[in-house]
C-alpha cells in the first residue's frame, strides 16, 4: 500500500481485521490517544510547563505558522519533546507525549524584525534548557489532526493563538546568549554550540526560532532538522578525512521501533550510502517494495538528497560521530528496512537513534568483504540482489574482481 490510508481497504477493515498487514491500526491508535487526553485539553485557556518546545510550519513561506507547544501539566515535562529520552519508549508512548502538547499557532513573517511581542516570548522559550511555566489563550478548543511526517515528531492538538506569555524566567545558558547576540553565520553558530556539548535538538530549536545566523529568520522545523544534521555532518566529514582508514570489514546491527538497521564499514576512503526499503505491509510500503538510495564520496554532495531526504542526514551523522570518536575513516553503507511494526511515523529522530545504537552493537569484524556481505545478506529481509542493483557503492565494488566469486554464489 503506497499511501498511509487506503479508503476502500479501510472501509472494509474498520480497524478490526488489519487487512493492511500492520500489527495495529494507525487510525484507531490516534483516536485512542486523542480520547485519553481530550478531557485535559478540552479548554481554550491552558497553563502548563512547556518542555520547552516550539514549532514552525513551512506552508505559506515566507508567511509561516509558528507557535509554542504547552501541555496542560506543570513540572518536569521535558520528556514530552526530547528524543534523547525516548530510547526505550514505544510508538504509542510517542503519540501520547505529542498529543499532550497543545500548539497555539499564529502567522508570522520569517523575518524576525517584522514580528512582535509573541515571537519574542517564543524565542525566550526556545533558548531555555529547562521547562518553562507558560500560559496560552486560544480562539477555540484545540483539535488533534493526523498529519503523517517522516521528518518531525507528530504534531499534537492545535488552535489559533490569541495570546502567549511566559510566567517564569527561562533558564538560558550564557553561551547561548553569546552565540545568539554575536554576528556569527548560522554554520559557525551551529558548530560552536555542538562542540560545546549542546544537543542537536536544542540547536534545531534555536535555528527554527530565528535565533541563529547574521540575517536572523524563522526556519520551518522540518528544514531546521535537516539543516542542523547536514551542517554537523559536513563538518565531521571534513575532519575524519584526515584520519587513517579502519583495518577490517565491520558489520553492525540494531532493531528499533520496527526499523532494522544494518551498517557495513569498509577499510577504504570515506564514502557514505543509505539504502532504504519500506517492506510490504509497512506504512509507506508497496506490493513490490523498491530500494531507494542516496550516496556521497569524500567530496560530499553538491545537490539536495533526492530519494531518502532527511533520513540520509540523520543516518550519516550517526555513522560520522562513531568514526570521529575512533579517529578513523571508512566507506559506509547503511541498510534500513522498515517493517509493518512501524505503524505511525514519529520523525527522523528514531532513525538517528537507531543507527547510533547500531554503531554501538557490532556483529563482527571480517578480513574479506565477501565474509561481511554473507553475514549482511542473512540479516536482510529484502532480496540482497536488489540492493546491489540500486547501490552505487556496492555496485561499483561488484564490478571489481573481489566480488566476482561471491556474486556468482549468490545469484546462482
TrEMBL record:
Domain spans labelled Archaeal Nre N-terminal: 19-284
Residue span(s) of domain Archaeal Nre C-terminal: 296-406
Keywords on record: DNA damage, DNA repair
Pfam families the UniProt entry points to: Nre_C, Nre_N
The keyword DNA repair appears for this protein: yes
Recorded superkingdom: Archaea
One GO term of the biological process aspect: DNA repair
Family: Belongs to the Nre family.
Function: Involved in DNA damage repair.
Protein name: DNA repair protein
Species classification: Archaea, Methanobacteriati, Methanobacteriota, Thermococci, Thermococcales
Amino acid at each position: 500500500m503506497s499511501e498511509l490510508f487506503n479508503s476502500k481497504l479501510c472501509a472494509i477493515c474498520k480497524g478490526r481485521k488489519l487487512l493492511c498487514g500492520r500489527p495495529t491500526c494507525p487510525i484507531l491508535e490516534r483516536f485512542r490517544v486523542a480520547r485519553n487526553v481530550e478531557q485535559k485539553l478540552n479548554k481554550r485557556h491552558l497553563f502548563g510547563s512547556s518542555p520547552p518546545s516550539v514549532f514552525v510550519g513551512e506552508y505559506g513561506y515566507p508567511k509561516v505558522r509558528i507557535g509554542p507547544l504547552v501541555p496542560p501539566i506543570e513540572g518536569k515535562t521535558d520528556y514530552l519533546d526530547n528524543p534523547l529520552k525516548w530510547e526505550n519508549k514505544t510508538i504509542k508512548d510517542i503519540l501520547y507525549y505529542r498529543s499532550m502538547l497543545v500548539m497555539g499557532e499564529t502567522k508570522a513573517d520569517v523575518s524576525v524584525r517584522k514580528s512582535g511581542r509573541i515571537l519574542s516570548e517564543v524565542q525566550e522559550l526556545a533558548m531555555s534548557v529547562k521547562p518553562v511555566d507558560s500560559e496560552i489563550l486560544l480562539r477555540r478548543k484545540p483539535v488533534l489532526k493526523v498529519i503523517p511526517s517522516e521528518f518531525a515528531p507528530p504534531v499534537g492538538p492545535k488552535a489559533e493563538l490569541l495570546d502567549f506569555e511566559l510566567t517564569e524566567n527561562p533558564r538560558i545558558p550564557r553561551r547561548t546568549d553569546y552565540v545568539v547576540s554575536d554576528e556569527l553565520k548560522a554554520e559557525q553558530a551551529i558548530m560552536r554550540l555542538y562542540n560545546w556539548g549542546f544537543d542537536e535538538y536544542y540547536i534545531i530549536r534555536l535555528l527554527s526560532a530565528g535565533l541563529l545566523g547574521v540575517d536572523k529568520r524563522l526556519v520551518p522545523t522540518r528544514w531546521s532538522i535537516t539543516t542542523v544534521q547536514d551542517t554537523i555532518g559536513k563538518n565531521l566529514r571534513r575532519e575524519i578525512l584526515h584520519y587513517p582508514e579502519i583495518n577490517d570489514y565491520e558489520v553492525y546491527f540494531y532493531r528499533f521501533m520496527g526499523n532494522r538497521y544494518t551498517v557495513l564499514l569498509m577499510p577504504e576512503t570515506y564514502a557514505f550510502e543509505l539504502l532504504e526499503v519500506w517492506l510490504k505491509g509497512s506504512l509507506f510500503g508497496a506490493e513490490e517494495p523498491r530500494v531507494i538510495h542516496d550516496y556521497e564520496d569524500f567530496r560530499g554532495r553538491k545537490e539536495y538528497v533526492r530519494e531518502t531526504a532527511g533520513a540520509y542526514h540523520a543516518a550519516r551523522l550517526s555513522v560520522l560521530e562513531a568514526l570521529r570518536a575512533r579517529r578513523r575513516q571508512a566507506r559506509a553503507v547503511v541498510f534500513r528496512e522498515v517493517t509493518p511494526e512501524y505503524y505511525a511515523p514519529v520523525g527522523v529522530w528514531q532513525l538517528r537513534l537507531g543507527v547510533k545504537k547500531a554503531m554501538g552493537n557490532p556483529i563482527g569484524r571480517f578480513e574479506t568483504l565477501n565474509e561481511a556481505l554473507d553475514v549482511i545478506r542473512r540479516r536482510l529481509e529484502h532480496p540482497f540482489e536488489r540492493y546491489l542493483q540500486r547501490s552505487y557503492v556496492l555496485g561499483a565494488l561488484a564490478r571489481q574482481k573481489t566480488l566476482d566469486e561471491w556474486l556468482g554464489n549468490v545469484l546462482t
